[in-house]
Amino acid sequence: MDIEAAKLIGAGLAVIGMIGSGIGIGNVFSSFILAVGRNPAARGEVFTMTMLGFALVEAIALFALVIALLILFG
Amino acid sequence: MADSSGAGQSPLAQFEIKPLYELELGGYDISFTNSALFMLIAFLLITFFLLLSTRRRETVPGRWQVMAELSYEFIASLIRDTIGAEGRKYFPFVFTTFMFILVGNLLGMTPYSFTFTSHIVVTFALAGLIFVGVTIIAIAKHRLHFFSFFLPPGTPWIMAPLLVPIEVISYLSRPISLSVRLFANMLAGHTLLKVIAGFVGLLGVAGILPLALVTALTGLEILIAFLQAYVFAILTCLYINDALHLH
User: Fold this and answer.
1) pTM for the predicted model, two decimal places
2) Cα R_g (chain B), whole angstroms
3) From A14's CA, which of B70, B83, B101, B152 has a CA 20 to 30 Å away?
4) Chain A CB within 8 Å of residue B180 CB
5) What is the percent of chain B where pLDDT is above 90?
């Protein structure tokens, strides 16, 4: 198989890992919305943890992206 | 730049490190690069912002002093909440790291600039320094008891041979995740902006759609710049807390 073709296929497969991150971010923000819905006074505190959770989950998506870019351009 | 008008430029060309002033020391290339220039600009911006806005030390602060005090209080309360009172001696380090990364990320949002945090070598240097420093703090404080960190309290003895290697690997992966998180966010964000911006010129009148998308993405990228700096700072504080208190 042509190396260029293999690189493209590899990069495409690698970004499939971002599905998990999509589900994760949906989870984080759904929990935030539910928590604020039950107890609007807790919004400030919960928001901080939400932002932290979002960034940590997003990192996983970006690990997958970095591998894809490494395959494509490395 | 005459050569950037065609479709030939890769969206990754914006991350190229170019030497601005060539210098060499003992066979090593220590040129002053565009990355070094922006680090210098970030350092000067932070220093002059903090020095000049707190110059008059008003009891009822004006706007600039409020901003300086806000940034101080933001990190001070972060340290107080995560580490507690003994974290105060780590405040200068965490504050410097936070401001450096924040201003570095935000400088990258200005046109024709260079985001020095989008290079793994920079973020890994910061994260590696934090990891080594935190491990040294932990070993200096707890000596050999430090290794009890890898066996969470209340685990049955049968599970220990499985759990301890997992804990060790997850501890060793901290600098990697810390650095790659920041680096990949900056790289992906700026590459995405470049790719979509490339479509604006190609579509003619319909280029208004990618233009609107680029505008929205720029706003998102500014938010990500703040968020990533905040996450780096809070994770540093959490690692220092782990080192001092061994959960």
Assistant:
1) 0.88
2) 22
3) B101
4) yes
5) 55
